Amino acid sequence: MFTKLFDKYNWEEVKQSIYSKTKTDVEHALNKTSKRDLEDFKALISPAGSNYIEQMAQLSHQLTQKRFGKTIQFYTPLYLSNECQNICTYCGFSFDNKIKRKTLTDSEILVEAEAIKTLGYDHILLVTGEAEKTVGVPYLKNAIRLLRNYFSHISMEVQPLDQNEYEELIAEGLNTVLVYQETYHKDDYKLHHPKGKKSNFNYRLETPDRLGNAEIYKIGLGTLIGLEDWRTDSFFTALHLNYLEKKHWKTKYSISFPRMRPAEGIIEPKVIMYDKEMVQLICAYRIFNEEVELSLSTRENEKFRDNVFKLGITSMSAGSKTNPGGYAVDPESLEQFEISDERSPQQIEQLIKKQGYEVIWKDWDKILTPSIYETAATKKM
């Protein structure tokens, strides 16, 4: 398990190492012709690296084009429930927030699916709060069965599960699981998760291992930027990615960059990441790892997304709703957080096309089961 490797590292020592990197270290990382290592990544995300963003951006753009071409994959979240048994200081769904709770019924899930399908999507991300009794494995299996005829690629961001539970969901059609550690700072993690199953740091930390053992197609990693020092958290994410790629080499990986956004009853960010620093981090990940997918959500504002996607991003959400039933059933239900880019998927698609890029509405993996729309079209021929 990754915990054995993780326990060999000390947060403060890693932080000091990052902040002590020099311009010589950064130039060495940029000019390296062989694969960059974790020390190179430290240099690229260091304060010294902030003086080389122009060079990093050019290199990141070149590496992304070489591996992924001029393509941006589109996805959108479908929030199934805002019920949650955890207390999390940064989340609008936190158990201690006195809000109206809602879990979509079968018929409501289908109404939402129809609304999302009309937007053009073939890749859906299922999201719930962490409420095992309400939205546990039986509920998730049922939801996947309802949705697999609508969407070619089904991703999920819910509570961590056991390996056998992931295997059950994969058998139903689950392709990808996103599981963010939130922060790798073990002591601060406890402060932000005082109650609920999520308070178990090691169980969450070992979730990608269980997913890898279950042979999931893709795993998404990341931290919530704002909880702790973003540079140190990003190093531990890169360490985790490095470990997983070596141990679970059949699985693909993605990294997301969620910055804290306003929501009901949450804390203020401990650390503010500025746009320039976000660009630095995106480029650092691409230079460190040419294969990893990098995702940017509607948490970011439209001006930033319009200018940064060419630097290394491979997937973006668009037209997102972060509340259960937000697309059609109950648009006024409480959001998990406020989105920043409120443009429609078609508006963002047109902008991307004007930049010479192609929008991919489904994942670029093998598609085994045709959707009901494709089947219906075939019958008409």
Major sheet summary line: 8 strands, parallel, barrel
Q: What spatial form do the alpha-carbon principal axes imply? A: globular
CATH architecture: Alpha-Beta Barrel
Q: Helical region count?
A: 16
Fourth-tier CATH superfamily name: Aldolase class I
Structural class: alpha/beta
Strand adjacency order, main sheet: 1-2-3-4-5-6-7-8
Outline the low-pLDDT stretches: 365-381
Strand content: 5-15%
User: What is the total domain count?
Assistant: 1
How large, in whole angstroms, is the Cα Rg?
Answer: 20 Å
Strand elements, count: 9
In the CATH hierarchy, the third-tier topology is known as TIM Barrel
In words, what does this structure look like?
The chain is 41% helix and 12% strand. With 381 residues, it is an alpha/beta fold. It has one domain (2-380): Aldolase class I (TIM Barrel), CATH 3.20.20.70. Helix 7 (137-147) packs parallel to helix 8. The longest helix has 18 residues, at 230-247.
Entry summary:
This protein has helices at residues 2-6, 11-19, 23-31, 38-45, 53-68, 106-118, 137-147, 163-172, 186-192, 201-205, 207-213, 230-247, 275-288, 302-308, 345-354, 372-380; strands spanning 71-81, 123-128, 153-157, 176-178, 218-221, 252-256, 293-296, 315-317, 358-360. It has 381 residues and is an alpha/beta fold.
What labels describe this entry?
single chain; alpha/beta; TIM Barrel; eight-stranded parallel barrel; globular
Topology record:
Blueprint: H1 2-6, H2 11-19, H3 23-31, H4 38-45, H5 53-68, E1 71-81, H6 106-118, E2 123-128, H7 137-147, E3 153-157, H8 163-172, E4 176-178, H9 186-192, H10 201-205, H11 207-213, E5 218-221, H12 230-247, E6 252-256, H13 275-288, E7 293-296, H14 302-308, E8 315-317, H15 345-354, E9 358-360, H16 372-380
Parallel strand pairs: 1-2, 1-8, 1-9, 2-3, 3-4, 4-5, 5-6, 6-7, 7-8
